[in-house]
């Protein structure tokens, strides 16, 4: 199992880095769209959509995504006005307000239309964040993704070594408060290293703490959906790793939140211009 995981990672990591730094727009957008559509397919499967509904759901999402990728790139006024000004704030509201309630109550949503909306609300802002953050800087996107990956690894090892107090035993029994603390400590070290190396404001570390908390929320939400549907993994596309959502669950929350915070000056500017 470990060997399979390592082989898969050895293939995916160089391929992703090559795409991140070498692919021009809109091909990066299309590649990331393909990835999130697979994740959306996995979501529809875990939510119990019938095959015909699943195909229709993904087809409609793909058509809209391809349209945006080809005709409205991240620098386009349409993308900025509708996707950035509405998509990211709505995603932020979802993760700040609705998801904590969802996790606290462990609600099993039976309504297919609500689950469709939830799937779009979870997966599509990830694509928007991947496109908009990469447009700002590939290094910026990579550094934010590293926060999530470092936090995930640190939480795993800290939880294995020191874990005693369960974080959410009815959702993900393996997660512990000690794991959360371990993640926060290690991302603090990562943030401190970046602050020293690039002379950045120390508040960056606080931002990394916030992203770590949101990444845990994304992980817990996917775990809840899998648990309610009786699934071990979201899929089997990645040998040794499960599905796409199993690898990006923490990113579904943290990347849109990072993009939202980084675009706050744009929102403020737009609000100032729209105010009489």
TrEMBL record:
The keyword Endoplasmic reticulum does not apply. The chain crosses the membrane at residues 27-43, 55-72, 84-104, 111-133, 139-159, 180-200, 206-225. It comes from the Bacteria. Belongs to the CDS family. This is Phosphatidate cytidylyltransferase. It comes from Methylobacillus flagellatus (strain ATCC 51484 / DSM 6875 / VKM B-1610 / KT). It catalyses: a 1,2-diacyl-sn-glycero-3-phosphate + CTP + H(+) = a CDP-1,2-diacyl-sn-glycerol + diphosphate. GO terms for biological process: CDP-diacylglycerol biosynthetic process. It is found in: Cell membrane. Pathway: Phospholipid metabolism; CDP-diacylglycerol biosynthesis; CDP-diacylglycerol from sn-glycerol 3-phosphate: step 3/3; Lipid metabolism. Keywords: Cell membrane, Lipid biosynthesis, Lipid metabolism, Membrane, Nucleotidyltransferase, Phospholipid biosynthesis, Phospholipid metabolism, Transferase, Transmembrane, Transmembrane helix.
């Amino acid at each position: 199992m470990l060997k399979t995981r390592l082989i898969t990672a050895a293939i995916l990591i160089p391929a992703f880095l090559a795409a991140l730094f070498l692919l021009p727009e809109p091909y990066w957008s299309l590649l990331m769209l393909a990835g999130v559509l697979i994740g959306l397919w996995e979501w529809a499967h875990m939510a119990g959509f019938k095959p015909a509904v699943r195909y229709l759901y993904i087809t409609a999402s793909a058509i809209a995504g391809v349209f945006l990728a080809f005709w409205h790139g991240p620098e386009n006024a349409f993308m900025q006005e509708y996707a950035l000004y509405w998509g990211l704030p709505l995603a932020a509201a979802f993760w700040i307000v609705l998801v904590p309630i969802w996790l606290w109550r462990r609600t099993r949503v039976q309504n297919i239309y609500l689950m469709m909306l939830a799937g779009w609300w979870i997966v599509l802002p990830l694509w928007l964040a991947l496109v908009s953050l990469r447009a700002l800087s590939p290094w910026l996107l990579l550094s934010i993704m590293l926060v999530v990956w470092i936090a995930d690894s640190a939480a795993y090892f800290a939880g294995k070594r020191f874990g005693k107090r369960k974080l959410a035993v009815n959702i993900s029994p393996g997660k512990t408060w000690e794991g959360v603390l371990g993640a926060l400590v290690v991302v603090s070290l990562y943030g401190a290293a970046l602050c020293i190396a690039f002379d950045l404001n120390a508040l960056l570390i606080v931002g990394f703490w916030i992203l770590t908390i949101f990444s845990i929320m994304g992980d817990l939400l996917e775990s809840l959906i899998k648990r309610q549907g009786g699934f071990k993994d979201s899929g089997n596309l990645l040998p040794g790793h499960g599905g796409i959502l199993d690898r990006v669950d923490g990113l579904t929350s943290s990347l849109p939140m990072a993009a939202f915070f980084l675009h706050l000056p744009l929102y403020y500017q737009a609000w100032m211009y729209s105010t009489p």
